[in-house]
Design brief:
Elements: H1 2-23, E1 29-34, H2 40-53, E2 58-63, H3 83-92, E3 96-100, H4 101-106, E4 118-121, H5 124-133, E5 138-140
Parallel strand pairs: 1-2, 1-5, 2-3, 3-4
Length: 142
């Protein structure tokens, strides 16, 4: 009878650990890296698709170098559609946009030209590194 109790206890413990592991899913956090504005439309589309598939995902887009151009006031895509509309829509869905201050300074771009939905960070590459190393974000480069 003792063997049966031990066997039953082992099965019960196994089931409980499986249930706990299944219920404790890790938060999905992703950083999209844009360093070329010609990839901005694809990045925004990828992010929309990502949110549709995983509505609880936390997404940050970090832009530096020529990648910041789509986050500047008045920027339009190849079809003449303003980027700010797509950016505002994604911000409403929880996406965070970050722009590299080193790029702004290096290219003599006035900070006031950056869309108000975007946050200026000291360094785009440092922000990418920090999000991955310290906050556990997964890296995606569209």
């Amino acid at each position: 009878m003792t063997i049966l109790r031990r066997w039953f206890a082992a099965i019960l413990l196994s089931l409980l650990s499986c249930t706990a592991a299944h219920g404790a899913q890790k938060e999905e956090k992703v950083v999209y890296h844009v360093n070329d504005a010609s990839n901005a439309t694809a990045a925004l589309r990828n992010i929309r698709n990502h949110l549709d598939a995983s509505p609880q995902v936390t997404i940050v887009l970090v832009a530096h170098g020529p990648g910041i151009d789509f986050l500047l006031d008045g920027a339009i895509d190849k079809q003449g559609t303003p980027y700010d509309v797509a950016v505002r829509e994604l911000v409403k869905r929880g996406v965070s946009f970050r722009v590299c201050n080193n790029t702004l300074q290096g290219r003599n771009i006035d900070r006031q030209r950056v869309l108000p939905e975007a946050v200026i960070v000291p360094s785009g590459v440092a922000e990418l590194s920090r999000l991955q190393a310290q906050e556990g974000y997964v890296y995606i480069k569209p």
